[in-house]
Design brief:
The protein is α+β, with helices and mostly antiparallel strands. The protein has a single domain, classed as 2-Layer Sandwich (Alpha-Beta Plaits), CATH 3.30.70.1290. Helices cover about 30% and strands about 15% of the residues. The protein has a 4-stranded antiparallel β-sheet with strand order 2-3-1-4. Helix 1 runs antiparallel to helix 2.
């Protein structure tokens, strides 16, 4: 099936391990996946890597135009979530996800002598149709870590974009676009980070109907 990613459209993309197995077993796995993620966001025109040692390139090698923007992400032990904007016509998010899956599977196979499929088929994607759905998807994605430890603070989870939204990370990620969401809170607040956090933690405002068929369950 051909997946149509039109320019200037948002998509919730997610996948999990085959038979729900963990695809991230230790800290190094999460960090390697994030390195792969930012590599293909920075260098969208390059082919899938043959060696992980090539993950670092010079800034001069980066393509100026970005065909897709990463808005939100969260990595969980057996699955991941991305909220992405397809900005230009090509390369498409299908190309992007193929590169990530191939490169990380290569790493995982080498690390754990794993054979067979790593992910549960092709990635799943849901097109976002309006701002309300967009906002609640970021909330859903950023609250995923609470599923591991009920009542935990999602802002301290190291493998999601929430800490970047709240300016808790010292190093700004040039490959993450948090401004797209935060600017929607700016007209209503001089502190959009705090306003966004309040939105995230508001348990009375879950709006599950908006997220119907948009999430991984």
């Amino acid at each position: 099936m051909i997946r149509n990613f039109k320019p200037n459209t948002y998509h919730h993309i997610f996948n999990r391990g085959c038979f729900k197995q963990n695809v991230f077993r230790k800290k190094k796995d999460y960090e390697t996946f994030l390195d792969i993620l930012k590599y293909y966001l920075r260098y969208p025109g390059l082919s899938p890597l043959s060696k992980l040692s090539n993950l670092k390139l010079n800034k001069a090698d980066r393509r100026t135009a970005k065909p897709y923007h990463l808005i939100t992400f969260c990595l969980m032990p057996n699955h991941f979530h991305f909220l992405l904007l397809q900005k230009e016509k090509s390369p498409t998010l299908s190309d992007f996800m193929k590169k990530i899956s191939i490169t990380y599977a290569m790493y995982f196979q080498q690390q754990y002598q794993h054979s067979g499929a790593l992910f549960q088929g092709k990635f799943k994607r849901v097109k976002v149709f309006d701002d309300e759905q967009l906002l609640y998807l970021t909330k859903y994605i950023h609250l995923n870590p609470v599923k591991i430890t009920e009542g935990s603070d999602p802002s301290v989870y190291p493998y999601s974009s929430l800490a970047d939204y709240l300016l808790l990370n010292k190093a700004e990620k040039d490959w993450l676009d948090s401004k797209t969401i935060l600017k929607k809170f700016y007209p209503k607040s001089l502190n959009p980070q705090q306003k966004y956090l309040s939105f995230i933690l508001d348990t009375k405002d879950a709006s599950p109907t908006i997220l119907k068929d948009s999430t991984l369950e």
